[in-house]
Amino acid sequence: MIDRLAIxxxxxxxxxxxxxxxxxGVARRIVGVGRNPDRLGPALAAGAIDHATxxxxxxxxxxxxxxxxxxxxxxxxxLPRVWEAAPATALVxxxxxxxRSIARVAEALRVGRREVQxxxxxxxxGSERSGYGAARADLFEGATVVVTSTDASEPRAVKAVVGxxxxxxxxxxxxxxxxxxxxxxxxxxxxxxxxxxxxDAVARAEPGALDVAGAGFRDTTRIAASDPRVWRDxxxxxxxxLGPALAAFRTALAELESLVATGDGxxxxxxLARIKAxxxxxx
Amino acid sequence: MIDRLAIxxxxxxxxxxxxxxxxxGVARRIVGVGRNPDRLGPALAAGAIDHATxxxxxxxxxxxxxxxxxxxxxxxxxLPRVWEAAPATALVxxxxxxxRSIARVAEALRVGRREVQxxxxxxxxGSERSGYGAARADLFEGATVVVTSTDASEPRAVKAVVGxxxxxxxxxxxxxxxxxxxxxxxxxxxxxxxxxxxxDAVARAEPGALDVAGAGFRDTTRIAASDPRVWRDxxxxxxxxLGPALAAFRTALAELESLVATGDGxxxxxxLARIKAxxxxxx
Lengths: 283, 283
Known about the structure:
The structure is a homodimer. By secondary structure, chain A is an alpha/beta fold. Chain A has two domains: 174 residues, Rossmann fold (3-Layer(aba) Sandwich), CATH 3.40.50.720; 100 residues, 6-phosphogluconate dehydrogenase C-terminal fold, CATH 1.10.3660.10. Helices cover 53% and strands 14% of the residues of chain A. In chain A, strands 3-2-1-4-5-6 form a six-stranded parallel sheet, with helices on both faces. Chain A has a three-stranded mixed sheet with strand order 7-8-9. In chain A, helix 7 crosses helix 10. Chain A starts with a strand and ends with a helix. Chains A and B meet through helix 7, helix 8, helix 9, helix 10 and helix 11 of A and helix 7, helix 8, helix 9, helix 10 and helix 11 of B.
């Protein structure tokens, strides 16, 4: 049981964390922090958080656990203030989609104050929806959460962060920040960029075709409805890891395209069957 | 009410058609035709069809409506036999994913026997699942069905095919076969090819990332689990229309990639927002 939990950013992920922690009795007192006090109203009214504030320092002063749940850029910017104001015993984590950047900030902060602990998290439970209105108490149940530890991480802190997510029903995978960023570039950031390009291709080539769209188009482009500002930050933060994933995608597409263009039915069917088998090995 | 309905190919679409026609009292007697009699057993046992046979000619001899519901290549191959054996009053349609090829076959057949009517259909209600086991009586409820008419189509025949789908709960859009094939190249065939390339990119670049896949990857690549043989035929049959759609996709992706690579956050956010707005105009 966490005595005092501070959540910075009470949107889809932060709000779901508050609701889940409450529902499962994981935290006694939950403080929600946001830039705009009006936006915290619904979470307060629903009892997801006990207290709402715009003051980061005040919110984390007596926190046992601090979760940064804003955009990746905002989390990076908030971390130094959290580090200064949090008690020596505080454990800090985040829910950002890229992990090298915040790990570097935490590493730099540890030079000045070694006792505060940071261990990154990335719940693979996002959605094209955003904001507290989309938050759900069961968002993390059965979801995969990547916890990122480095050589500098204290095993006790890693264990506590893993335990927090497991207590909320998630399955935890641990990776170092580099491996995490490469993995999500391929499994999440590439699909997002491709989904946007796919919707844009229809807008450019056959906008009227939208009228006969079926489930195939809706599913492949669902994440193109994600928040542009949030995804701008994610894509820019992970641009270098996205490069090799995009190169692999381009090669894969060119090969399929060439099999279609040359009319090599047997090779095309074999390629589709091979990829289908790989795809079906997903959990 | 159709007195005698013959369905050639009792898989996902043909089976759902039988179940829906039965449930809504649209057809009195339904004959199911397949190459393999064993595969027709479940539809017969469930009462979706009244009679099962492997004999195309016998099945369509007294049919009022014949629906070709096999792969596009098999439908093209079956149509001449149907044309010869069906009564003069017969109305023939299909549920194939491309429409120019079967329209050309029908046009050629009409030179010899003008009284049989063919009007193509394409229910945008496919799925990565296939076979009668995936069939559902409500598959067409609220789905879009494209009915393809040409200058040679008799208005009465077009009206009858539109009426059949509307009786099953579908919303009908009519297009000529050329416009249909261009539209589905962009809205369906391109997303399929891209979904396969996306799954293959992960297999090539970061196969281990499959372990942390979230809903984004699962949704964007769901249709990469579609039947390789069926999709080999569709992609080859519509290769020429797929070309311009792929070119538009490549341009769209290259533009987004360049905004990420140059770090132009404002332009990237604006592009993502523009595409999101287009994507959200889908029904």
